[in-house]
Amino acid sequence: MPLLEVDGLKVRFATPEREVTAVDGVDFFIDAGECVAIVGESGSGKSQTLLACTGLLAANGRVTGRVRFDGAELLGGDERGLEEVRGTGIGFVFQDAPGSLTPHLTVGRQLVEAAAVRMGTDRVRAREEALGMLERVHVPDAESRLRQYPHELSGGTRQRVAIAAALMPRPRLLIADEPTTALDVTVQAQVLELFRELRREFDMALVLVTHDLGVVAGLAERVIVMYAGRIVEEAPVLSFFRSPRHPYSAGLLEALPRLDDEPGSPMRTIPGAPPRPGESRGGCPFQPRCARGSSRCEKEEPALVAAAAGRIACHHPLDPGPNS
Amino acid sequence: MNAPLLQVTGVSVRYALGGSSSWSRRWLTAVDSASFSLAAGETLGLVGESGCGKSTLGRALLGLVPVHAGSVLIAGERMDQATGRRLRALRRNIQMVFQDPLASLDPRMTVGESIAEPLTIYEPELGRKALRLRVADVLERVGLARAHADRYPHEFSGGQCQRVGIARAIVLRPGIVVCDEPVSALDVSVQGQVVNLLAELQRDLGLAYLFISHNLAVVRHVSRNVMVMYLGQTIEAASRDALYERPLHPYTRGLLDSVPAPEPGPQRTGAAPLGGELPSPLRPPLGCVFSTRCPMAQARCRERRPELVEASAGHRVACHRWPEWPDGLKPASFS
Question: pLDDT tens-digit profile of A2-37?
Fold first, then answer.
């Protein structure tokens, strides 16, 4: 049984003008202990998918579909069950710590509270654990950090503290939404290294929500690509990078600037822009930007079907490579 | 030889912090004695992490932040000594493209009005019709349609907004454009479109770019020369190929090694090339500014700040130890 199972998830937002569909029928699962990256550009619905799974959507959001964590229904169930899962089952790390940490509580207070969820009210032990966890995520000078507020910390240290707070209840699933995007490249490398260590040690599943394919290559075992609120491809990480099957995946990989590109050469691009949420026109959502598109793609939306070790939603997929 | 289009010599930007009396006031040096020159049709990439002073330097060139010391010459003329009509002419020659394309446009003005605004200031004699023509012309140059002039910024995608930002910067026909993280806020699939547009405009109009970015891969695509900053200091500056293939400063090497390769494979187990974090600019290290994080640091590095010296023609570096690796630091030198 998978740890997290999502079926037919839809997310709609009511806006003053109209209803906007941000996530349009998404199915996937996460097994215990594995690392899955959910990749997409702005407006692809990747963040809303994960927020919806755990009941953290904005107030004007409406979710339908089924989400099971460890066999228990998360949607439509009572708020208490959801609370418990959020408290101890699933941890969150967001792009920048303002999303993960409370600005007016000291680091120590936040970590102790996170630990208390699991251990009851033994504050002395919780404080010890908090200190241990800060040291574990390599926060320098951990003892004095406990008395500091989030704004007194650098961006990198704040993100380490946010990771420590998320790990305090020992979650079985950690969801990290763009965890390194706000960080400088040298600090980003440090945080990636930390994630690799923690996965080995804590035996937890990790869902990375990101647009950064470098981060994906460094951590993930499986990749789910989202476009316009749908999953368009899913593949093991090696076959995704070596032989992507969806023209969008292939385009993204080509468009990614690399250090070993021919210096001074023009950059590869995908023409056009991703559609905005709610801008649906029937047919394949990627068709207006796709070089392989046909008249069929204009009319008929491709279904997400099993292919080799993954899934693909495309009428004219690229050839599977020798590696898949 | 002609004077370079832009000549920057020893430019420093300092901010006073704290009290009004000289007792309690402290100084934060955001940019310390930066020097470079830029010729027409050329791009200088300016890289470094947040807080290194790269954006401040770009803003200082436009007069958006006060220059504390040093000189900025545009086509041989000192900007700080120019006044009135001459200063206006110099300022017109250097324009800027900002990081956040939507935030840099007034949401209540049509795109056409935003683009026309600098023209109405610098060329008030232009009539309505002439103004519309200039706007239409520049819109087409950046790959948009004439009809887009009547729309509002929120109707555009991020990439289109950045095209408008570029149109606004070039409508005065400047010689120099400071591009401050021009593609960082854009989706990957769109970044290349904007970078290629900038390259095309450079070819057609002979623009000189100061291209400020934290993305080393993008900078490599566009730059002829690259300058690396750390905590306000210029720590290395060289031609693109020298900097990427034979970096002399350990920080440059560490930056290059930190870029995650989009290839699953052996690098997945690698340790981060550089530990630690940027020190506070209020209390910069005594010696070399990078000494607190440098894997190669020795006692002298912590005591004495290295001068920026010319290691070879056109290759400047500020490091005590570079003579020990005159052919550059190899990848993964620190692991």
Answer: 999 999 999 999 888 888 999 999 999 999 999 999
Say if B185 is an interface residue toward chain A (CB within 8 Å).
Answer: no
B-chain residues near A17 (CB < 8 A) = none
Q: What is the ipTM of this complex?
A: 0.86
- Asked whether the beta carbons of residue B217 and residue A196 sit closer than 8 angstroms, the reply is no
8 A C-beta contact, residue B253 and residue B333: yes
Instruction: List the structure tokens of B36.
Output: 């470079």
| DSSP string for residues in B38-78 | E-TT-EEEEE--TTSSHHHHHHHHTTSS---EEEEEETTEE
B260–A189: do the CB atoms touch at under 8 Å? yes
Q: Do A269 and B190 touch (CB under 8 A)?
A: yes
pLDDT in tens, A277-322: 777 778 999 999 999 989 999 999 999 999 888 999 999 999 887 6
Query: Considering the domain boundaries, does residue B182 fall inside one?
Result: yes
Nearest 10 degrees: CA dihedral of A210, A215, A221, A224? 30
Dist CA A189 CA A249 (whole Å): 24
> Domain range holding B115?
40-61+84-223
pLDDT reported for residue A119: 67
Q: Which residues of A284-314 are buried (b: 16+ CB within 10 A; e: fewer)?
A: bbbbebbeebeeebeeebbebeebeebbbbb
Residue B70 lies in a domain: no
Q: Is A27 in contact with A231 (CB distance < 8 Å)?
A: yes
B114 and B198: one domain?
Answer: yes
**Which CATH number fits the domain that encloses residue B108?**
3.40.50.300
Tokens of A299: 């009319």
Q: Please check whether residue A269 is in contact with residue B190, taking contact to mean a CB–CB distance below 8 angstroms.
A: yes
A231: closest CA among A39, A36, A55? A39
What's the confidence (pLDDT) of residue B1? 47
In a domain, B2, yes or no: no
Do B187 and A192 make contact, defined as CB atoms within 8 angstroms? Answer: no
A130-151 pLDDT per residue, tens: 999 998 888 888 888 999 998 8
pLDDT value of residue A97: 58
- How far is A65 from A26, CA to CA, in rounded Å? 9
Instruction: Read off the pTM.
Output: 0.91
Domains of chain A: 34-58+83-214 (3.40.50.300), 221-257+280-324 (no CATH)
- Containing B37, the helix (H) or strand (E) segment is strand B26-38
Q: Is the pLDDT of residue B270 over 70?
A: no
For residues B83-95, average pLDDT = 92
Is residue B97 within 8 Å of residue B177, measured between CB atoms?
A: yes
Please report the pLDDT score of residue A308 as a whole number: 83
Work out the average pLDDT over B74-83. Answer: 90
A323 Cβ contact partners less than 8 Å away, ≥ 6 residues apart: A238, A239, A242, A243
| Helix, strand, or coil (residue B237) | strand
- Please answer yes or no on whether B192 and A257 come within 8 Å at the CB atom: yes
Chain B residue numbers with beta carbons less than 8 Å from the beta carbon of A261 are 217, 220-221
Give CA–CA dist B100/B123, Å, rounded.
27
A290 touches chain B (CB under 8 A): no
Average confidence (pLDDT) over A103-117: 86
